[in-house]
Design the sequence.
């Protein structure tokens, strides 16, 4: 499949995915993304073959990135 065709398909489907797939920049966006991940975990579980398993993984990475950048590390004294 040509990449141009894949991009066209992504553009057509983007409005339905955009509300749950974004880079969080605020705490509220982060909290919404965590809620999406929780719902995906409930639906996908540990089924790596589930059609939404990769979406769950991507959202997990986005959350982890936000936490790495925004949440201070706890250090032992």
Sequence:
């Amino acid at each position: 499949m040509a990449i141009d065709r894949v991009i066209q398909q992504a553009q057509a489907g983007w409005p339905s995915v955009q509300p749950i797939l974004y880079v969080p920049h605020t705490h509220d966006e982060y909290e919404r993304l965590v809620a999406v991940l929780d719902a995906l975990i409930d639906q996908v579980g540990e089924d790596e073959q589930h059609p939404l398993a990769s979406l769950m993984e991507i959202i997990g990475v986005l959350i982890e990135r936000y936490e790495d950048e925004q949440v201070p590390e706890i250090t032992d004294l």
About this structure: The chain has a mean pLDDT of 93. The chain has three helices and no strands. Residues 41 and 56 are 7 Å apart (CA to CA). The chain has one domain: 13-70.
